[in-house]
């Protein structure tokens, strides 16, 4: 059994923060921000993730019946307990529908897509709503300019249903290398550095990332993952209609052309207008390209990206 994405939605907060405004927050120049990250502007939300996600989800559900499962696939929760998916359900007015989270940081959407495919194929659920919503700007660390200059806010949602009898989820691969656990962190908020723990510092609750080291490690691992993908399937790289990477940074996105061997005009890149929106960035790139007509039915899509951990995953799917 195949799957079909029958609905898509996106929420771009109306407030645009320019690179000049970002520069003033981190005591850098506008030129520095753009040259280091490639982000010209990003959105900054005045509403929280539950409302952001519900707006995107309402678009995905337009003209469709209600889902029978909601999966939250975001990077940062609204609060520790209860699960953020509960707040999505409440905002959408979809009482009684089961919901839970899949948390793989920036890979949450891709992991949720794979799991939704399996749940549909097993006939456990028939209509699954995946929502990714992140407010990266709330956790920016002004003392870490390069990561702070990357982050933005946004949300996207997709509705997954059974497709035809031809399996169109062609390939899936995920690896995790826990030696990279300290490369991308928000140390606070959990049991190790609980807010009431006297050793917890305010900066423990902010995002921190060793960007250069992550890029150095991830680029090599991404190259190997791409190689393995196309040794494992009956497709060539030239068969891929669109590469949809996690919008980690300008260097990370363009690496799929420069080192991965894909046509640069076939790599979806929205980073300059949105920044890195954590888990929401990959589905936002996908929905943007659907909405502007680049992605069409039958296109072969290659989703790929990295997440904190360090993890990497990819999926080859026919749209």
Task: Give structural notes.
This protein folds into two domains: 160 residues, Thiolase/Chalcone synthase (Peroxisomal Thiolase, Chain A, domain 1); 150 residues, Thiolase/Chalcone synthase (Peroxisomal Thiolase, Chain A, domain 1). A hairpin with a 3-residue loop joins strand 12 and strand 13. It has 319 residues and is of the alpha/beta class. The chain is globular and about 55 Å long. Helix 1 packs across helix 2, helix 3 packs across helix 4 and helix 7 packs parallel to helix 8. Helix content is 32%, strand content 23%. A five-stranded mixed β-sheet has the order 1-7-6-4-5, with helices on both faces.
CATH architecture of the largest domain: 3-Layer(aba) Sandwich
Give the helix level as a range of percent: 25-40%
CATH H-level superfamily of the largest domain? Thiolase/Chalcone synthase
> Major beta sheet, specifics?
5 strands, mixed
How many strand units?
Answer: 13
Task: Enumerate how many helices there are, as a single number.
Answer: 10
CATH class of the largest domain: Alpha Beta
Q: Specify Rg, calculated over alpha carbons.
A: 19 Å
Unreliable stretches (pLDDT < 50, length at least 5) are none
What's a quick, concise take on this entry?
The protein is an alpha/beta fold and 319 residues long.
Can you lay out the helices and strands and say which pair or pack?
Elements: E1 3-11, E2 16-18, H1 19-26, H2 30-37, E3 41-43, H3 49-61, E4 69-72, H4 84-92, E5 99-101, H5 108-121, E6 128-135, H6 145-148, E7 153-162, E8 169-176, E9 184-185, E10 208-209, H7 211-232, E11 242-245, H8 250-258, H9 271-274, H10 281-291, E12 300-307, E13 311-318
Helix pairs in contact: 1-2, 3-4, 7-8
